[in-house]
Amino acid sequence: MASIANKLFLQTQTPLLLARRFRGKINIQRPRKPHYTRALVEAVTRPIYEQPPQTRETCLMPRKNKVEVPENPYLQIIAKELLNWFNHSKCTGIFHLNSINAEDMFKAKVLFHKQNMHLKVYPKKALALGLSGGKYEEILPLFDAHCAVVFSLDGNPSRMLKITKKVPQLILIGAIAEDRILSKNQFVDYAALPGIDIVRAQLVGVLNSAAGDLVGKMEASQSTIVRMLEAHAKTDK
């Protein structure tokens, strides 16, 4: 009877579910570095353990000589290139780069290129080689994680921020404008400022209004004196 019922009615099969992590396994030996802000929090909250007391034997142990590795010529070329970009860019944005595929990266470069901006990603060794000992050495801690740099030759920060809203993989962590290192909030405030031409026009308007007020006050006092003299002359007659 059971075999006849199995042939007459359809049987439901339970699906086989297999839990998989997105994009394969985690690289335990070389884990990806976290965001710069998270790295700061982890560094501050890291516990400090007492070091074991050093004895005479540990102090007199011979140190191993470090083998000097010659610098890669290709890294030197990249270091000169990125230093040239930093020196000739009027506005530079530093972004934390999250996971992004090649197609989205190409689209982001096209968006920046249309506004005369350039999206670059450099290795950490080249950044350390090019920026060490210069005026941009203080921004090297920002590149501890995987970062990208946007160079604007025209110096238009408002357009840069508008484009980054279309690319969620780019997170602003710092910037350089007019040879000054700015934080994220300072750069956003700097982008909200009007252009230099508008500020000059406002300054000219303020100066003209002050000069007009001064001329009006001087003419008002003179006209008042003239009226008083005319009234005094009429009373004498």
Automatic annotation (TrEMBL):
Report the InterPro entries cross-referenced here: Ribosomal_uL10, Ribosomal_uL10-like_sf, Ribosomal_uL10_bac_type
Q: Does the keyword Ribosomal protein apply?
A: yes
Q: Which UniProt keywords apply?
A: Ribonucleoprotein, Ribosomal protein
> What does UniProt give as GO cellular component?
ribonucleoprotein complex; ribosome
The cross-references to Pfam families, in alphabetical order and at most eight, read: Ribosomal_L10
Q: How does it assemble?
A: Component of the mitochondrial ribosome large subunit (39S) which comprises a 16S rRNA and about 50 distinct proteins.
Hey, which family's this protein in?
Belongs to the universal ribosomal protein uL10 family.
Listed name of the protein: Large ribosomal subunit protein uL10m
- The species is Nyssomyia neivai
